[in-house]
Amino acid sequence: MNKQQVIDFLTTDFSLANLPDSFMQLRRIANDPHSDIEDVVEVVRKDAELAASLLKLSNSSLYNNGSSHVGTIEDAAQLLGLRKVVESSLALGVIKQIKIDHDGFDLRTFWTRSLAVATISEDVYLAAPRHLKTIVDPKLLYTAGLLHDIGMLALIQGFTDEMLELMDRSNHEGMAIHEMEQRTFGFTHQDVGRILFKKWSLPEELQCVAGYHHNPIELRRRLYYPLVDLVYIADYICSVSENELANILKPKMYEEVWKRSGMSLDMVEDFSDRLEDVFASSDAILTC
Asked: What CA–CA distances, in Å, run from 258 to 79, 226, 245?
């Protein structure tokens, strides 16, 4: 595998060579302070698979106590609320595009973790110092957390055997995955993610999340420190599982990042009880 082969794959064969239209429309709605639930319903109505998934989610035990069956998109939107409908729709629009049928890679675990990072990123923002909140646009957090490791998924879909072998070595040698990638290929899944984000015309601060979430201390764009740091911290908090994928993707501890963001390492413990609900919610989305 070389970088040109990866770029060619991203352009022609990757399942998410282009983001779904519903994803882009929902991002615009999420960024528009004047939007409301009807705007979201209108987008969902045009995507039959997405509509069916939202109905299934709204009828799940996590969101519905079973007292009444939800049969329309309007009812689902009212039950789940604007934020949950938008975020679930964004996630489902991307998740259903990618298929990796290989026993050596657990796609469900990957997405569960990504969904958890997306949610915890927003929670970490709420707990952040005031000065950080004046810099970070909270509307970017969910997308940043959801897609921060998309470069890894692209490499696994396009170059499965090479990546699974590399991940196995990373796990056994205890070397961070991006360091193993750099040593082996001369580039990392962070570079791939940044290429994709740029191709999708996502904001530059999101491109920096894709490119530096494992090693935020190497980012030189001071303006984008806060968003990258928040996602890095959320990623670290969510790395509690003992499974192999969690070990491979767990970020290194960079105390400098926590200090410059004004965050306390106590947050890891503070969020421990919250994680069970977050992972349950993520699992509910994935069953749709």
From this structure: 37, 10, 24
